[in-house]
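Troubleshooting log. The previous run stalled partway through. Resubmitting the same two chains, unchanged.
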Amino acid sequence: DAMVIQNPRYQVTQFGKPVTLSCSQTLNHNVMYWYQQKSSQAPKLLFHYYDKDFNNEADTPDNFQSRRPNTSFCFLDIRSPGLGDAAMYLCATSRDLESWDTQYFGPGTRLTVL
Amino acid sequence: GDSVTQMEGPVTLSEEAFLTINCTYTATGYPSLFWYVQYPGEGLQLLLKATKADDKGSNKGFEATYRKETTSFHLEKGSVQVSDSAVYFCALTAPRGSGYSTLTFGKGTMLLVSP
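Second attempt completed without errors. Output:
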């Protein structure tokens, strides 16, 4: 089945130690997104790629970076994780950026910062 | 800006009860509307969608109708099951001034169904 895959499902890191989360897709979609979801809150968009074009949300901290080396893969890098960065990180894809395009989500990576 | 307002939870029901989760929105232009479901510890799954006024989205016994006149997209199910226990997010996408659309979520409504 075509899908969005995230690895690992659970990640533990230490305060200030860089961490990378991975997302891959078999849908061949143009757009890939990263969201942060804290407990009992709605997902918050961090940034997205349309093909190789990167779009950062205005309030995304500089501590968060992303890479998309090819159509299938996208990475979220947190350069110096703080305790406030503990959250579920969701990757999503969509075929295009039109308002009617559905976003398909992966299962998420739960990040713990010690 | 765009916004989505959902009823606060938790909504607690007995199995086979009727479910309504209210959702209203504010958006410029002509948004598309979505319901996503999130089971504990999991990512979001698309439940249903509607892309224009009067469209009805339906899936797994859930339904929602895009009502432009009342700016609403209420989620309904005639008979809930214990397995429907989850958090339900109403969301919209609408074109931004920058030319692309992004999802705006409501805060989510937790549904708890007891046997």
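Takeaways: The longest strand of chain A covers residues 87-94. Chain A has a mean pLDDT of 93.
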